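Reviewer 2 asked us to include a model.

Predict the structure of this chain.
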Amino acid sequence: MLLTLLVIGAVVVLGGILGWVFVSVMKNRAKSEPINQVAFDPETQVIKRPSDIRSSVLTVVEGPQTGRVFTPRGVVVSIGRGASNEVNLTDPTVSRNSAKISWTSNGWVLINDDSANPILVDEQEVSKKSSVSLNDGSLIQVGKTRLLFRPIEFKAA
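Predicted model (structure tokens):
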């Protein structure tokens, strides 16, 4: 009985010490990790600094999901009704795979992904399999849904 209590006491003490060590190591690790993390850009096959990392915000300004804000990560963003899209729209007039937004050396572009339904950017129709430049504040219409495009560039601290 005494031996059992000693073993249980040792396990509790050892567990407390290991827990303290784990928390201390994690705190120090968090402090020592570099702030300037890098990301791999599959489009250019280049490792990029945070100042080069780009993303976008798409806000639904008209349609079934009005007010919804999409904050996809990365330089290629898919838009459509299909569940695999980063911007997954519930509008039944939207194709499963309608369009892609992509960062290129010339800036942001929207590519019509052979959508069965018309896609407009700033009231101009984007033909199937063609692309059009996007600017800060561009309005994208997919089906009956209108999205406000806002680019983001992450700056290194």
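The first strand starts at residue 39 and ends at 41. DSSP finds one helix and 13 strands in the chain. We have added this to the supplementary material.
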